[in-house]
Amino acid sequence: MPVDPDRSATTTENAHGRIEKRTLRTTQILTVQQKWPGLKQGFELTRERTEKGKKTVEVVYWITSLSPEEANAAKLLHIDRTHWHIENSLQYVRDVTLGEDACRVRKDAAPQVLAALRNTVVHLLGGVPAKNCPEAIELLQIRPEEAMKLIGIPHCE
């Protein structure tokens, strides 16, 4: 029986010394659809990774409110890859640029407060005309009046 291209998609990438193959299969056969009216489809994502001759396989299951007409298997596979790109980019900025991993604050709610502040900074830096966050930070250090304007503090002479 041939595979329906709307219900199954596969990508293979060879980068960073490893081969990654991702196969996504969708289904609309969900036993809890009556409990979750917005639930449109579920999918199984198999990630096969071969590095230095060693193969690992991970299988994950997801549900989505996107109908098959809104997102076939290929689009869901693309969404999965895009999600991780965004997630990894945010983590890199927080960990490396803003020094989250090096922070030793551990008491009470302080770690959560600092994480919220870092997220706010990342969001605000997105509005600075620079090619990346370190460049935006440098620009705002050189022009503190721009930093003040960014957070809503009026310019004073």
Task: Annotate the secondary structure layout.
Blueprint: E1 8-15, E2 18-27, E3 41-51, E4 54-64, H1 73-97, H2 110-125, H3 133-142, H4 144-150
Antiparallel strand pairs: 1-2, 2-3, 3-4
Helix pairs in contact: 3-4
List keywords for this structure.
157 residues, alpha+beta, 2 domains, 4-stranded antiparallel beta sheet
Summarize the structure.
The protein has 4 helices and 4 strands. By secondary structure, it is an alpha+beta fold.
Query: How many structural domains?
Result: 2
How would you characterize the largest beta sheet? 4 strands, antiparallel
Q: Measure the end-to-end span.
A: 76 Å
Provide the succession of SSEs.
Answer: EEEEHHHH
Overall SS class: alpha+beta
Strand residue content: 25-35%
Shape: elongated
* Share in helix: 25-40%
Strand order in the sheet with the most strands? 1-2-3-4
Q: How many strand units?
A: 4
What's the pLDDT, averaged over the residues? 86
Q: How would you characterize this protein structure?
A:
The chain is α+β, with helices and mostly antiparallel strands and 157 residues long. The chain is 37% helix and 25% strand. A 4-stranded antiparallel β-sheet has the order 1-2-3-4, covered by helices on one side. α3 packs across α4 (144-150).
